[in-house]
Amino acid sequence: MSEAAVRAFATKILGPATKLAPVILLGSWLFALRHFILHPGVGSGTLLVSAVYLLPVASYRLIEPLFPIHTGASRLGRNRPLNGWAVAHRFQILFSVFESLERILRVVPGAYSAWLRLWGSRIGKRVYWTPHTLIGDRTHLNIGNDVFIGNASYLSPHIVKKTRDGFLLLLKPIVIEDQVFVGTHCVLGPGTLLKKGFELPAYHMTINGKFKKQEIVDVEEITESA
Asked: pLDDT digit string (tens) for 195-221?
């Protein structure tokens, strides 16, 4: 079977099925939790941890080649081809709903950085993640060594704008070089590039290389410059 035929099959069959990914994953978590409650032990505990942290990322990485993510601007909508970003989002959404699952990982040094690497991000050494940091896309972060991410900051390599015929997606990696300090309550959007040693003051926003204090952002201007 040719590569084109495989992609066509994936888009037609597997694509719609990925809409059920959050439900299937949540069901597996509840099953593993029930098993652990009824049969506590190392084996059931390992099953629970694997279901919560390994099953989502392993499932996504398995089908990722069939749904490649393209950076830049792209269209989303009912009559549009299935977007690879949308597929990745479906496998990550439960960690946005249950934020405490990722906060637990930040208690163990290096664990959260390793978690992001599993999704495809490039994370350096000695990155400090404050407890209430939020991540929009775990697949498109490129962070250097000795970086501090301030509390309640939000890192999202994507933004979405509504259009007449659907939605416009802008997806660009967030790049943070070595020894960068990000202040509290900052928003880092798509295309962010923080050079080595840079300090981003608290309550600031950066998208596509543009810096400003947090306010209403002109998304039209941003997408046109993508």
From this structure: 999 999 999 999 876 655 554 344 445
Match domain 68-224 to its CATH number in 3.30.70, 1.20.140, 2.160.10, 2.60.40.
2.160.10
Q: Does residue 172 contact residue 72 with C-beta atoms inside 8 Å?
A: yes
pLDDT digits (tens, 9 = 90+) for 56-103: 999 999 999 888 898 998 888 777 777 889 999 999 999 999 999 999
User: Residue 75: which residues within 8 A CB-CB, separation 6 or more?
Assistant: 163, 165, 166, 167, 168, 169
As a whole number of angstroms, the distance between CA 28 and CA 25 comes to 5
8 Å CB contact between 156 and 190: yes
To the nearest 10 degrees (0 to 180), the angle between helices 55-63 and 21-38 is 150
